[in-house]
Amino acid sequence: MSFNQVLRTVGGSFGSAISAAILSAHLAADGHPTARGIGLVLGVGAAGSAGCSSRSLSRRS
């Protein structure tokens, strides 16, 4: 159970770091993230979640 918690924590850390890197690369002149940056973060997060889910499901069968 603790190994699962460690993996969840590490995954959350990597996800936050990747999201922050994408958002900081797509800043508007006023310092706020652009709509394109937010869309990219959403797309990367959705793709990562779908990939992990499909991999988990394929291992169970």
Q: What does this protein look like?
A:
Helices cover 82% and strands 0% of the residues. The protein has 2 helices and no strands. It is elongated, with a radius of gyration of 15 Å. Helix 1 (2-25) packs antiparallel against helix 2 (35-60). It is mainly alpha-helical and 61 residues long. It has helices spanning 2-25, 35-60.
- Radius of gyration based on Cα positions: 15 Å
The general outline is elongated
Helix and strand content put the structural class at mainly alpha
SSE run: HH
Q: How many β-strand runs?
A: 0
Q: Span between N and C termini?
A: 22 Å
Percentage of helical residues?
A: over 70%
Low-confidence stretches: none
For the structure shown, list the relevant keywords:
2 helices, 0% strand, mainly alpha
Structure in a nutshell:
It is built from 2 helices and no strands.
Topology record:
Elements: H1 2-25, H2 35-60
Helix pairs in contact: 1-2
